């Protein structure tokens, strides 16, 4: 069963509903270097951070129509890093002025037996991929440039092939619900990356 | 007579002012060359030359003006030559001509060029006359043609280099790729989709259809799962997970309503319909754990 829309949920102490604001685009391989240079200039000054992550998407199919989706991610290049479990809700539609895709987001770190746990709960893995790329930050904005690799032999993360000749570029912010000025900041930042990359709000439903 | 005199005076004044301007710009150019030669750039020199050329042009225009009487018809005759210093003259010439004497007059009131220069000019004119009108015409034409060719080449080069700079040299992103990547991340389009249907191997990449599962959202395409071939899938419904923002809060508040299991013979033991705490004792390995696709997680 899908979680009810955020606006209907009563605020009953404890946690704040976090929303993820997202803008996506892509860049071809040969232009990656220029994009990285530009991001290094625009973003906060830190060591360039690369990452290799293995993400698995789990589905829980109920009697209802839509399955419940959880995303489990683990780092392939950082030993000892915790696994990361994420729930992403449906994109909130309606406000055409909002410049970013907004969806409910729940993030948590877990231990390594996450997959066992999920299987026991009845989740089944739907698909998996390896993401390899770079991470940048600017304030609360996170910019990730990564390439998606298809896993050819299930479970074997070494045997991968690239899905396309492009890198996916994502600009995301996780912020409490209701802070729409965040999307304005994101749009201003996205303007600075043109014409290398066009970051825009892409509705996944359109791409079914 | 009066009118002509007035015209003469007016044109003389105009000429004087033009010449004064020219003198000033020449002076500043020389100063620039002498004092700032190490910092001088070619565009700056070009600017000075352009200024000079502009002023010469206006001077020419003034001379050609219809109101200007022909100066050729005027003659300047020195009336008094004296070797004494003349203060007035000094003032007027800004200290350059102190004495109006025999040495100064031939230079300043000259109307013909130097004898050597005159000789050269005469020679050139005789050469030109010697060639003959036709040959001269041909030479003029070939010169014009070469000049125009050169100009054309230069302008073409300039145009090409400009357009080369303006043209975006290459596309830096591919919108189709963007869509493909977003679809892959959102719901696994193009990635190997795992179907726990017991059949071996990953489904063909890029095969949408029954196997395609969509990222969690209501109202999306329902995944058709036939009951019988899908073993060991107890039907769980109504899983609600508390919104836990920080690590460590995850285990709390998990309520599972577990309805009856599937009809398949290989099914888990039935649980009571109640809140279920996950305890070690509960976990029984469901049959088929050694199924190939599950061996991943060992």
UniProtKB/TrEMBL annotation, chain B:
Molecular function per GO: RNA polymerase II cis-regulatory region sequence-specific DNA binding; transcription coregulator activity
Keywords from the UniProt entry: Activator, Nucleus, Transcription, Transcription regulation
A GO cellular component entry from the record: mediator complex
GO BP terms, alphabetized: regulation of transcription by RNA polymerase II
Subcellular location: Nucleus
Domain of life: Eukaryota
Record's compositionally biased regions (Low complexity): 196-207
Region (Disordered): 156-175, 193-214
Predominant cellular place of this UniProt entry's protein: nucleus
Quaternary structure, from the entry: Component of the Mediator complex, which is composed of MED1, MED4, MED6, MED7, MED8, MED9, MED10, MED11, MED12, MED13, MED13L, MED14, MED15, MED16, MED17, MED18, MED19, MED20, MED21, MED22, MED23, MED24, MED25, MED26, MED27, MED29, MED30, MED31, CCNC, CDK8 and CDC2L6/CDK11. The MED12, MED13, CCNC and CDK8 subunits form a distinct module termed the CDK8 module. Mediator containing the CDK8 module is less active than Mediator lacking this module in supporting transcriptional activation.
Function: Component of the Mediator complex, a coactivator involved in the regulated transcription of nearly all RNA polymerase II-dependent genes. Mediator functions as a bridge to convey information from gene-specific regulatory proteins to the basal RNA polymerase II transcription machinery. Mediator is recruited to promoters by direct interactions with regulatory proteins and serves as a scaffold for the assembly of a functional preinitiation complex with RNA polymerase II and the general transcription factors.
Protein family per UniProt: Belongs to the Mediator complex subunit 8 family.
Protein name: Mediator of RNA polymerase II transcription subunit 8
Organism whose genome encodes this protein: Moschus moschiferus
Higher taxonomy: Eukaryota, Metazoa, Chordata, Craniata, Vertebrata
């Amino acid at each position: 069963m899908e979680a009810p829309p955020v606006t209907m949920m009563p605020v009953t102490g404890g946690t704040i509903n976090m929303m993820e604001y997202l803008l996506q685009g892509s860049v071809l391989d040969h232009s990656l270097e220029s994009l990285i240079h530009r991001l290094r200039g625009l973003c906060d000054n830190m060591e360039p951070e690369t990452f290799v992550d293995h993400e698995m998407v789990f589905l829980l199919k109920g009697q209802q129509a839509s399955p419940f989706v959880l995303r489990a991610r683990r780092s392939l290049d950082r030993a000892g890093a915790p696994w990361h479990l994420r729930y992403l809700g449906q994109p909130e539609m309606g406000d055409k002025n909002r410049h970013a895709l907004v969806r409910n987001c729940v993030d948590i770190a877990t231990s390594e037996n996450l997959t066992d746990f999920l299987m026991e709960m009845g989740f089944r893995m739907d698909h998996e991929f390896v993401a390899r790329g770079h991470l940048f930050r600017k304030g609360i904005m996170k910019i990730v440039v990564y390439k998606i690799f298809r896993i050819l032999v299930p479970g074997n993360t070494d045997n991968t092939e690239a899905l396309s000749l492009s890198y996916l570029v994502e600009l995301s912010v996780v912020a409490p619900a209701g802070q729409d000025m965040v999307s304005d900041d994101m749009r201003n930042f996205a303007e600075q990356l043109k014409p290398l990359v066009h970051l825009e709000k892409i509705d996944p439903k359109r791409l079914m | 007579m009066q009118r002509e005199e007035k015209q003469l005076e007016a044109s003389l004044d105009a000429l004087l002012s033009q010449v004064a301007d020219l003198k000033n710009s020449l002076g500043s150019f020389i100063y620039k060359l002498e004092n700032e030669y190490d910092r001088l750039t070619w565009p700056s020199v070009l600017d000075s030359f352009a200024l000079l050329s502009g002023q010469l042009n206006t001077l020419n225009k003034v001379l050609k003006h219809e109101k200007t009487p022909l100066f050729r018809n005027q003659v300047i005759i020195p009336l008094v030559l004296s070797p004494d210093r003349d203060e007035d003259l000094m003032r007027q010439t800004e200290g350059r001509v102190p004495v109006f004497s025999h040495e100064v007059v031939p230079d300043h009131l000259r109307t013909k060029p130097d004898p050597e220069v005159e000789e050269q000019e005469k020679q050139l004119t005789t050469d030109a006359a010697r060639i003959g009108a036709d040959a001269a015409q041909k030479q003029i034409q070939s010169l014009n043609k070469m000049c125009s060719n050169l100009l054309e080449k230069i302008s073409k080069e300039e145009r090409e280099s400009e357009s080369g700079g303006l043209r975006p040299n290459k596309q830096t992103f591919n919108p189709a790729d963007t869509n493909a990547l977003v679809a892959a991340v959102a719901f696994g389009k193009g990635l190997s989709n795992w179907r726990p249907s017991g059949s071996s191997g990953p489904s063909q990449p890029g095969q949408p259809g029954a196997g395609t599962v969509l990222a969690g959202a209501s109202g999306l395409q329902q995944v058709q799962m036939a009951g019988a071939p899908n073993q060991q899938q107890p039907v769980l419904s109504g899983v609600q997970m508390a919104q836990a923002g920080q690590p460590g809060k995850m285990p709390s508040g998990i309520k599972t309503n577990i309805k009856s299991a599937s009809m398949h013979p290989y099914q888990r033991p039935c649980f009571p319909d109640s809140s279920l705490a996950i305890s070690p004792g509960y976990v029984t390995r469901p049959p088929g754990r050694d199924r190939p696709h599950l061996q991943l997680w060992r």
